């Protein structure tokens, strides 16, 4: 652990920020699924810390990009989850404020720790979305964060198709500079510039 911390000091600032973003999202996911609404005591400060780090790393110009993307992704994700809840695919014991915060953090990851997906072929983005989006909800159900009344199989099939479309759409939404997939340009992250 000590050597990992020592090596992290030698990362360029943007790579350190990407590492923070990835670890932060994992902390948010796990705390949200395990502690539900109590997780907001951690997840809201982590949202604020994201923007503080962004400013202190000399990337102030990206605050508005991140803020707008975060709000768009959260609105879309919460809307989709609300529709799926109305259709009976999900049930929550209490109103899931934690899920809204999880969507906010997911929006922040698209231009940072998940930016590596941008140059991937569309079919691969779709498959990754279908698989990992579905696994996220099914795993949440295993930890009792959500109930899947139709069962794991039917819920997984529906979620697979939702995320098959959703992830590529969100990746495109997070592409403020019009990255061209066919050129395989190396500077596909806003911090690569």
Automatic annotation (TrEMBL):
It holds the Pfam family DUF2878. Keywords: Membrane, Transmembrane, Transmembrane helix. This is DUF2878 domain-containing protein. The chain crosses the membrane at residues 27-53, 73-99, 119-138, 150-171. InterPro entries: DUF2878. The keyword Iron-sulfur does not apply.
